[in-house]
Amino acid sequence: xxxxxxxxxxxxxxxxxxxxxxxxxxxxxxxxxxxxxxxxxxxxxxxxxxxxxxxxxxxxxxxxxxxxxxxxxxxxxxxxxxxxxxxxxxxxxxxxxxxxxxxxxxxxxxxxxxxxxxxxxxxxxxxxxxxxxxxxxxxxxxxxxxxxxxxxxxxxxxxxxxxxxxxxxxxxxxxxxxxxxxxxxxxxxxxxxxxxxxxxxxxxxxxxxxxxxxxxxxxxxxxxxxxxxxxxxxxxxxxxxxxxxxxxxxxxxxxxxxxxxxxxxxxxxxxxxxxxxxxxxxxxxxxxxxxxxxxxxxxxxxxxxxxxxxxxxxxxxxxxxxxxxxxxxxxxxxxxxxxxxxxxxxxxxxxxxxxxxxxxxxxxxxxxxxxxxxxxxxxxxxxxxxxxxxxxxxxxxxxxxxxxxxxxxxxx
Length: 412
Hints:
The chain has 17 helices and 14 strands. The chain is an alpha/beta fold. The protein folds into 2 domains: about 15-140 and about 285-360, Rossmann fold; about 145-275 and about 360-395, Response regulator (Rossmann fold, 3-Layer(aba) Sandwich), CATH 3.40.50. Strands 6-5-7-8-9-13-14 form a 7-stranded mixed beta sheet, sandwiched between helices. β5 (about 165-170), α6 (about 170-185) and β6 form a beta-alpha-beta unit. α2 runs parallel beside α13, α3 (about 75-90) runs parallel beside α4 (about 100-110) and α8 crosses α9 (about 255-260). About 50% of the residues are buried. This is Substrate-binding protein. It comes from Stutzerimonas chloritidismutans (Pseudomonas chloritidismutans).
């Protein structure tokens, strides 16, 4: 009689142990094909590094983490459909994406399913502004924040200049151009000209026509509000036309993979913004940030960029919020994230309660000369930090946010 009872007891404990060890799944929307596939690779590398590090430390709530990745191809409809697939696989949260349309569409679907969504590479003001909601937290900076740091730098070092804008005709492109026009006092479109690039289907001739229009203007500063392959192709054409010799070129949201794809010679002296570079941890005296850089280098023989850092930070901060909440319930995690201050890869950051924007320092950067870059061991030391702005100063105020929201003054 004792032996069957012992067998049943052992079986119960085995089943309980197996259930307790079920992985907690995280859904990563990332572009493994299309215009943003290089950024997608960085996203996945940063996320995997965080997942592995958490699992090596014992997991989360006694369970391992598992990263489930699906190709979004930087398409809003595909990213939205992926959220449904993640939910069916039992994902506890979803993050990623490579543009603002993805963030808006996938974030809304996550909200409908009760999942938290953390966009990456989504800079449009609407994400945490007009279209923000309780289930969305943005770690990356907004267009407003990039415009503020660039506007301050340009007003100090290049005052009273004539601008010309080439902008993607999507949510990010429109909000970035508007924010930068405000910050640089280049609102007058008759004096500060522009061209629009279609969100989809743009051809080489479209980029070339926009650049030729800029070349025919009297502009001192050329602002190219594009991302991914759109920016790479436009920068190559601008280099062929030698526009960088007669205009200061601004690419408001730069990242490491853009310089890598276009080439250091093409990108020489271009100014933009970054929320993080691999040199920031040393600058801000961040031990955990430096450890992240060293671990990434050891794994990939390359420097981590801001895209990898953002994905890593999202996973780590979500996991930390779960620990504080003690459960995976979205509402409990929202409460744990709101107004939580932390230092991870640089100086202090926090998630604001009223809009769920991550408030952090933002940097204006300039791409180094090619000769200087080629002397680096990985030939990837692309950026010089030329200006820094505190997150509180860069982010829109509560009054600004409420004006954009209209009647909806609280996240729903």
